Amino acid sequence: xxxxxxxxxYFMGLGAYMAxxxxxxxxxxxxDSAWIFLAGQACYPAxxxxxxxxxxxxxxxxxxxxxxxxxxxxxxYLLFTVENDPVLTAVLSGLxxxxxxxxxQMLNLAILEGRGEGSYARIRTAGTLGFGAAQALLWYxxxxxxxxxxxxxxxxxGRAGAFSYLLCFVPAIYTQRERLSRE
Length: 183
Known about the structure:
Number of strands: 0
Number of helices: 8
């Protein structure tokens, strides 16, 4: 059950990020948006490789997951607060994507090693539900009856998604500590 909540909240944050990042960056950095997006795209595979390498070398999962979550929440939050600084935005975009990928890698390793491949698809459904919940909430709060009270823009959505990573810490306590396989 811990993986259900862990994936639900993690993918809720990811869903908010995905829905908000393009409108946020294009609106603020139209001329530099391609470079900012490239920084994020280049760092995503690096996050997978780095987390896999660290996990293989250190034989740890939980400590890397905790470190990744502790860094991801402020990186994503800061990404959606920066104004008029394309270089800092590109750095934060790259770090956010690196951490998103690294944490997903750690979650996949924990699930596959801890629960086996047979339950992997069922557990990953929680991530889909979390992603969908973020999209539904963003849609709901963008409706006219809500926008008269407050406007939900892309920066608010991205910052709100960062807080969902903090909810991952409690179920992450129950992930396995060490790698089981030697592969």
